[in-house]
User: Fold this.
Amino acid sequence: MEPNKKPIKRQKLWLRPTLQVVVAPAIFLLLWSIIAPEYQLPSVIKIGLAVAEMIEVGTYWHDIIISSVRGLSGFLIGFALGAFFGILTGRFSQLFLLFGGLLHFLRWTPVLALLPLTIRIGGLGEQPKIFLVAWACFFVSWAYTHVAVSKLNPAYIWWSKSLGLNLRQRLFRVYAPSVSPSLIGGARVALAVAMIVVVAAELGGTIQEGFFRDGLGYRISRAIETNRNDINIACILTFGLIGTFFDFVLVQFIKRGLRVITGIDFYRNEG
Amino acid sequence: MDKAHLSIENLTVCYGKTVVVNSFSIEVGSETIVLFGPSGCGKTTILKAILGVSEYGKHVKGNILFNNKPLIQDDGHVGMVFQGPVVPPWMTVSALCRIGSKIRDYSATEQNIKIEKMLNQFGISDLINRYPYQLSGGQKQRVALAVTLLNEPSILLMDEPSTFIDGMTRIAIWDFLEKEVRSLGIPTIVVSHDPAEAIRLADKIFCLSSPAAITRSLNVPFTHPRNDSMLRNEDVWELMNTLISP
Assistant:
């Protein structure tokens, strides 16, 4: 049986990145090339040329950085506050009784409808844009963290007590690993929401005079106005790429960070 | 060495207005007692009260004394083995064995010796680097018991220790409790609704009704060490009939 093990492992190691990075995108581009002419969409080459054009003009990297900074700043603020409140309302049921209804109500208010109000209160600077993203991320993060903490298996609490664990050990060796899968799930969804809100706000913001003059969302709306489908699609795909990159970095960061803090490789059991 | 003595006086536990445990009093020396009763009659609630578990809406009255002093519940004095073993899936057996507050007082070398000895006694020394998802139900229960005993508790509580495990493992666990845990000489309270388990392990059996109050107590007269062949004894069957009769 032993000699069969190595080839199987090699095949798996070789297959996974190849499928993800080469084969699947190649299929996507092939399908695009087939479908695009039928719907008068730009070809893959035309989209590539649009990217080159944006790089030459100097807007491409600038827009990526601007949209990323807006998304990430709002995400970090919203996620941190949401996780903090989630821990409080999840741990102390009286606090949830007091604030749970209000938080659920605010969670359902449409974030983009707050745009004009945000401009009126915060002006045309960067803060109102970041506030909008943080607002959206806060509720995603709060909901995930609240559920994870409130549903923490009580047997773990009793078990920690029976073994005489102190607060630090309980937090880092029992509670944090127990709720971290939900926290990571919440962080990933919040990050996706952050990027969606950035592009939606940048798109919608063009209606408000002077609110947005840069960012990938703004570039998309300009492309629609000037009938440049190639730039439009290039910006949409760029959003997908930076979202995938941030998601990958976030998951690695949290996994490694938790391993350093807790000293436990608790993701081994996924295996 | 002074004999350990646990005294529970007029323990009453309420969830809101519902009384779950009603004026429960027992004295436990260096022996094993079994709380025997139907499911949901409040046996586990008694164990949780001894452990000092606080829950929302729960009120506990009464005194719990250990060697005539109020029981300290926070520093690992009270070891508990839970029904459906608690073995956090993100830790290896080795990490689980080292997590208790008292085992960490020893040096790494002493810890290794103690862990090796304990796991050998349970016949699970080869599982030391495994994660709980790689263990069977019986192996998890043995690991949970080993982790609790490695922390050298002054009082041992066990909530249906042989539920969810196969017959052979159940006998192995009973044998281990008979040989190793009894020799520790600590007050041991086992919750069970299995008459065979109660008679195998107990020096005294307290039958409970709902809400948990003692309806009768039975001394188990059979000498230690006991083994599974005792269950074929006619006197045991008679005691078992007494136990399950209303």
Remarks:
- The first strand of chain B starts at residue 6 and ends at 15.
- The mean pLDDT of chain B is 86.
- Chain B touches chain A through 34 residues (CB under 8 Å).
- DSSP finds seven helices and ten strands in chain B.
